[in-house]
Design goal:
4 helices, 7-stranded mixed beta sheet, alpha+beta, Nuclear Transport Factor 2, Chain: A
């Protein structure tokens, strides 16, 4: 659903560009850029869950900057090779025999944007389709950056989420 909304939005931008219509003020241009950036950052969360659900390591790794760091379970992994090894050997959703669907309730996604940098927080609810029960929940608190025109994770800290009061 989010992908359809993103495609529709980007299509409307393309049509506006083809018609010669352009934002009339720098404020409108900034608002439009913020909307595009917001959708691009949200796609990190969407692709994360898609990769986890399909056990697609290559798709997961496409979300990370080359020199990214990932801290989970008190261990920090640096660079794509170490992060890939973590997902391949330790991350439960990617282990052989695991058949989970990964999802995030929309209200558990938060992001910020400041130029070419931002933050993204989401929670992963891992669901066993056979039992229809949530079997694991992980929160991911991430720094993201636009690198060569693409929003990527530069730092991520994952842990079990804590319920607020």
């Amino acid at each position: 659903m989010r992908r359809a909304i993103l495609l529709a939005f980007l299509g409307s931008i393309a049509l506006a560009g083809c018609s010669g219509a352009a934002p009339t003020t720098s404020s409108q241009a900034a608002d439009l850029q913020r909307q595009v950036d917001t959708l691009a950052i949200e796609q990190i969360e969407v692709k994360w869950h898609e990769a986890s659900s399909k056990q697609d390591l290559d798709e997961m790794m496409s979300l990370w900057a080359d020199n990214a760091t990932f801290t989970v379970g008190g261990q920090t992994y640096t660079g794509k090779d170490q992060i890939r090894t973590f997902f391949q050997t330790k991350a439960a959703p990617f282990q052989p025999g695991t058949n989970w669907v990964s999802d995030t309730p929309a209200y558990k996604v938060r992001l910020t944007i400041d130029g070419d940098k931002g933050t993204l927080y989401f929670e992963c609810d891992y669901i066993d389709p056979a039992t229809k029960k949530v079997v694991n929940v992980v929160g991911a608190d991430q720094s993201v950056a636009r690198i060569n025109g693409v929003w990527l994770i530069t730092n991520s800290v994952a842990a079990a989420p804590v319920l607020g009061l």
